[in-house]
Amino acid sequence: MKKIFTLILITSSLLAYCQQFNLTFRVDMKEVPSLSDTVSIAGNFQYAAGYPSDWTPGTTLMTDSDNDSIYECTVTLSAGVYEFKYINGTMWGQDEGVPAGCAYNGNRVITVNKDTVLPIVCFTTCFACASRNHQLTFRVDMSQVGVIADTVSIIGDFQLAAGYFSNYTPGITLLTDPDMDSIYELTVSIPDALYKFKYVNGTEWGMDESVPTACMSSGNRFIDFTKDTVLNIVCFGSCDPCTSIGIEENDFPFTAYFENTGSDFITIEFNPNYNDAGTLQVIDITGKVLVQQEICEQKDQINVSELSSGLYFLRLLNHENTYTFRILKL
Hints:
Blueprint: H1 2-18, E1 20-28, E2 39-43, E3 61-62, E4 70-78, E5 80-87, E6 108-112, E7 116-117, E8 121-122, E9 134-141, E10 152-156, E11 174-175, E12 183-190, E13 193-200, E14 221-225, E15 229-230, E16 234-235, E17 254-258, E18 265-270, E19 278-283, E20 289-295, E21 299-303, E22 310-317, E23 322-329
Parallel strand pairs: 1-7, 1-8, 9-15, 9-16
Antiparallel strand pairs: 1-4, 2-3, 2-5, 5-6, 9-12, 10-11, 10-13, 13-14, 17-18, 18-21, 19-20, 19-22, 22-23
């Protein structure tokens, strides 16, 4: 029985290896100053696709059937990783210089494991030609994340269109926070389309946010993109802005603080004109209530000795309102 099972595994692997997929290359030559009569493509896919040899300009030709300056070529290949570059002509020296942002060994690269139509890119760039693209700015507020990773990234089905190696790949499409306000941003130039995406507190799967149902499609955020767009700032893992953004301290009926560094007690001090009892909760970044205590005194303390260092939220619930206050335990 064991030998039969092994044979089945080998047979399945061979079938997967032998399976053929259609791959369509597409390049926009609109911004090339002197367009050649022949546009071709060269790479390590050519021999596998039935051409005489790999890396041979002028044998794998691209066509522009509708005269829109977008040249295409479809080949049939086995699964694998292939490198290639476009050529404005039929010989070396007319090949494009692939920018570092989308280059691998100085070439473009694609992993083939299904039928694939590549995004349209402008000759010698990682992106579509500027005249065909719009800018999309992603923005996420990480201020309520307990531990912000050194790298905040974004994944989605826009990554190939923006010139990155592959879609849904964490750690290659990075957001930055130049003004240190915990709001991370990235602007890409991509063609109009419906895109799905999600933010990642790091560079790996498992660090991606869980998108709430109210703003989710197939587990992702989404945008129907038709013009230059700056997305609204949302809190990581939420459909809305972070709760305390834009709220001044005076809007709260209390202040909360540690009287000494490393203290195990949070001191709660209510404003002089506040005379309503309430329930105070200590909540972690997942929304779990860790400590709950009734507050009746003008000044009181909450014991948090069982909590590890990190960012927490204090939530005051009274008869009329709910207030949320961030606090960091060292």
